[in-house]
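@channel anyone free to eyeball this complex?
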Amino acid sequence: MILYVDANYLSPYAMSAYVALREKGLAFELRLLNLQKAEQASAAYAAISNTQRVPALVDNAHNFNLSESSAIAEYIDERYRERGHSLYPANISARAKARELQAWLRSDLQHIREERPTEVVFLKRSPAPLSAKAQTAANKLFHAATQLLQPGQQHLFDEWSIADTDLALMLNRLVLAEDPVPEHLVHYAYLQWQRPSVQDWVNLPRQIG
Amino acid sequence: MILYVDANYLSPYAMSAYVALREKGLAFELRLLNLQKAEQASAAYAAISNTQRVPALVDNAHNFNLSESSAIAEYIDERYRERGHSLYPANISARAKARELQAWLRSDLQHIREERPTEVVFLKRSPAPLSAKAQTAANKLFHAATQLLQPGQQHLFDEWSIADTDLALMLNRLVLAEDPVPEHLVHYAYLQWQRPSVQDWVNLPRQIG
Ligand SMILES: [Ca+2]
Ligand SMILES: [Ca+2]
Ligand SMILES: [Ca+2]
Ligand SMILES: [Ca+2]
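replying in thread with the prediction:
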């Protein structure tokens, strides 16, 4: 298998797909696209990725290409059901909440994503204080996370799922910028961040531009 | 069951959830939120919708609330597997491509969404010509759709899926603005739009503001 990711390992969605493959115990080769040079918009990559974004998975064994990190996680969980750690809860309602969270984190909270880019998380950049709009988004994030996580709870559902990694990344945009974050969410994000599959992504070699 | 949607029936995601429920043959009551009055940000609605967005589903039979339209479609397809029309393809690879498309349409192409809001589709507003950025996004949409749809093909996969409705809505932002769209995609979007579940949403009573 091949996973296409951004060359500086900054895409939160590339990270999500990387962690998903690692958790499933699937062997894969990383291939790098330089987004600053718009390599994702090349004709060669458009033939691999319908959406011309990272990540993209090439599953040669099934002659199959797929983009969008949440679709990639669902695909490998279904295609390789017996392998490694399940990426989604088995319970229908819990699985629905995992999908709700993944969809939401990818399509809302844009002020957090803009003011707390992943350079804050992976390159320890120190950003300006949050704008009022970003603080509103942060409060919305804390509300949603608190609905799903009791103090002391280590995973969203009975066991780890890929939604934990996605939520921890979003929280760590704020935690690592030293923005105020409720204590139990800081603790949750910290524990999620220790997961070996996540740490392997965190420790990939990045060029500080 | 209860489905919360925007009071003017303009949200493409509310439409997607509405069509999904109709296709499954599930009975539901519509409840309306006035987004201009920010009713989705009220404490009452935050207790129903974790993400404080429309649509939200309340499945009283399972004491379960869920937001995000793609998660809602997956949930009702799994929970009510024997009912109505399947919302996703049975084949693992086809199902993955349906999810890829749903995730992409919800998180990219923002210039099309901004310059061709659903008022163009549902209220026949005539917009200004596309900017260069929106035209680039439109070309990307045509590329992706053409990869998935041969000329004359009426559905993305062997049978109708909810991804067809989502793609047809995105294409119709352009078609109904009289922007240039490849002929076979115009035809596909037109046929998808005739589906009774879609027409019922199109014909809901809207106030022209
Ligand atoms: Ca780079
Ligand atoms: Ca864990
Ligand atoms: Ca209204
Ligand atoms: Ca059809």
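from a first look: The first helix of chain B runs from residue 12 to 23.
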